[in-house]
Amino acid sequence: MAGIVLRVRLVSGDSMDVIYDDTETASEAETVDHVAAALSRDTGVIRCRHGDRLLLLYARGVATVEVAPRGAVL
Questions:
Q1: What is the pLDDT of residue 53?
Q2: The CATH number fitting domain 4-67, selected from 2.40.128, 2.60.60, 3.40.50, 2.30.30
């Protein structure tokens, strides 16, 4: 599966669009479930991309995550 775009709102109030690639799941729904499960743990972290940069997104800094419907600009 290709990466999905996540719009992340941080606890600070800032937001950013990141790309999350998961090669182990076949569908968007499974990928979203995986992200939700990872970020629901206190020590949860996911690897994302923001432009050309690798980003580690820690659960404790995330307020909300929205799956962007195709077309979010990175």
A1: 93
A2: 2.30.30
Q: 3-20 as b/e, with b when 16 or more CB fall inside 10 Å?
A: ebbbebeeeeeeeebbbb
Nearest to 52 by CA among 67, 74, 69, 73: 74
Please list the rounded mean pLDDT of every run of 10 residues in the chain (74 residues). Answer: 82 90 78 88 90 90 78 54
Q: Where are the domains of the chain?
A: 4-67
pLDDT (0 to 100) of residue 1: 56
Instruction: Find the distance separating the first CA and the last CA of the chain, reported in whole Å.
Output: 19
